[in-house]
Amino acid sequence: MDARKKKRKVLLMGKSGSGKSSMRSIIFSNYVAKDVRRLGATIDVEHSHVKFMGNLTLNLWDCGGQDAFMETYLASQRGNIFSDVAVLIYVFDIESREVDRDLDTYNAVIEALREFSPNAYVFCLVHKMDLIQAEHRQRIYDERSSLIRSRSEHFRVDTFGSSIWDQSLYKAWAGIVHKLIPNLTVIERFLSAFAKKIDAEEVILFERSTFLTVTSVSSEIGDLNPIYDRHERLSNIMKAFKHCAARNTLTTPASAGFVVMHTKTPQFNIFLGRFTDNTYIFLVVPPGEAAYNCAVLNTMLAREGFSKAAASGRSDGFPLPPPETPDDGASNGVNLGF
Amino acid sequence: MAFRHIRRSLSIELIKKNRMSKPYPYTRSDSSRSEAQLSLENILQGATPGAVSAHSRAILEPSVKPRDAKPRLLLMGLRRSGKSSIASVVFHKMPPNETLFLESTTRIQKDSIHSFMDFQVWDFPGQLEYLEPSFDLEDIFGSLGALVWVIDAQDDYLDSVARLNRTILTVQQYYPGINIEVFIHKVDALSEEYRQDAYQDIVQRITDELNDCGYENAPVHFYLTSIYDYSVFEAFSKVIQKLIPNLSTLENLITTLGNNCGFEKTYLFDVLSKIYIASDTRPVDMASYEMCSDYIDVIVDISELYSWDHPLRKAKGEQMQEAESHVVLHDDTMLHLMEMNKYLCLVSVIRNPEAREKKGLIDMNCRTFQEALNDVFSRSWEREEDQTT
């Protein structure tokens, strides 16, 4: 039972050529956008186990989208494919000329899903948005997503417009993995308490290898930030830099990474560092040398608390001790020092 | 081990220089400022050998002309050789793949670049016959800093080379001080071997022709460039560096700083164009240049996300006015970035394992460098003002 729970089955479906494998490669296999043209067509189903946050394994089924495959999924393979699904990600190509036919196929998939795993989450990505002129994007996306909703039966569907050429891809996938992480509320409770303690404007947790936003909290002031897509943009910026670092230090992108980054400017201070084995923490605090150093020290102390908790056996999902977190004591200790 | 001496050698050295010129201790009061800077100028000039200062004077000459103090860069070449694309990518941050959609240039595009040093970039339409008598040569080539000639290496370049030779010979008669920079462009599509062949061939043809016309040792330099990698930035950096009057001073300062702090490589970047205007005297390798240049991008992009203004955003204490940032990568390489003034920032690659503990010293040395740098720049500005009054 427990093993089953940890392996979440994620189905990636959509018409052939809609970009399923491309985005999978970018998010999970460290491809850059222009490399994906090398990918060939996916034959049948490609299974991959993606480690996310260490011990959450996504069991990703990338289903080739050619019509012949689609038919077998819906007929002879039906039970095999659609049972135990945690998440269905369905990709629509915005440039498709046969919208009605796409929607019919989608509806058939939804029917099958309702039959075998009625509790699955459904995400629909309207992909290749970069091909639409900027001024029409929102309108066309809205039309398309309402069409999709009308064909989704009882499932509550989240739709995202996405493109591999900008940060929208990260927004979509961050939304998806956000739904998959166990005990997320515990993590969020901890983070907001922590952010309050160190007076941070914003605290973001990024997954280590994909740089997807796991979760974030922001203070009242941090909420006023006019840039809404900043988390995705950060993912994009940092991942691009990771690729650059890998290229120039002659390693693979998978093994490249940051140990720590400090940035101090007159408007804000930022700290990026490893938090747990699988996450980076990203702190935004107001300027002020002493306050900043204090925040960094507190983060280090909180991290120690985490690793201790992890060592003592509470290692499922996020190694998090129960509500009386060690950061309380730790940060008090440091604050007293100042 | 090098770190122990950092503080003494660099900061004291600079302070000592100031002390020598002034009997009283080093203070930055406004009344004594110009005197201190003037004497610093003397010292720094004195420190560089005569040959170097003569070199910098020669470069200064065009910009000293009273008519137009801004040095000018001319982008020339046959049509569709990529002049406008270069200008857009380097000076307007256009992504390289979007340059496909640039219209062809029909008139001279004049771009003023306001940065650490003001200069103009003139983008010439390829089909313009500027050597005809109806064009005023003085208007085009007077007060010129450098002529950048772009050759499309994927195309048949014989025409372009012939035309360049004609241009050089004409310009040379009237304005012998002009630097001629030849960009052998669009080399991204050529194989390594073919690239070298084309380079050799073009260099040979141009120097032969010029020699035949009795013009030897022409100030012509060649670069292999492409907008799809960093080579065009690197080439432009070299071009701009020749226009900077204080280059040798800057290089000396950076080398001193780098030696004392154990930096592997240090660049002084213009933040907007990501051209480096000076670096230490160690050889430039593309890897470190690329990383430093991308790191600037990271900081600029992040700043864009978090530099919003709101009355409720308050500082929680004292902090330096200039931005400072460093990152430690997986292989313990440290990149260190410090804002020098509005336009410039200093980026260094540090591979010395002791660097992480000595971060404070490094910061302090960089601040000292910053003071020296701003002195160097304010000095040349003051001199210009003296001339006009």
From TrEMBL, chain A:
One of its GO terms (biological process) is cellular response to starvation. Coiled coil: none annotated. Residues 312-338 are annotated as: Disordered. It holds the Pfam family Gtr1_RagA. One of its GO terms (cellular component) is fungal-type vacuole membrane. It comes from the Eukaryota. Keywords: GTP-binding, Nucleotide-binding. GTPase involved in activation of the TORC1 signaling pathway, which promotes growth and represses autophagy in nutrient-rich conditions. PANTHER family: RAS-RELATED GTP BINDING RAG/GTR YEAST, RAS-RELATED GTP-BINDING PROTEIN. Component of the GSE complex. This is GTP-binding protein.
UniProtKB/TrEMBL annotation, chain B:
InterPro entries: Gtr1_RagA, P-loop_NTPase, RagC/D. Component of the GSE complex. GO terms for biological process: cellular response to starvation; negative regulation of autophagy; positive regulation of TORC1 signaling. GTPase involved in activation of the TORC1 signaling pathway, which promotes growth and represses autophagy in nutrient-rich conditions. Its main location: membrane. Belongs to the GTR/RAG GTP-binding protein family. This is GTP-binding protein. GO terms for molecular function: GTP binding; GTPase activity. It is found in: Endomembrane system. Keywords: GTP-binding, Hydrolase, Membrane, Nucleotide-binding. SUPFAM superfamilies: P-loop containing nucleoside triphosphate hydrolases. GO terms for cellular component: endomembrane system; fungal-type vacuole membrane; Gtr1-Gtr2 GTPase complex; nucleus. It catalyses: GTP + H2O = GDP + phosphate + H(+).
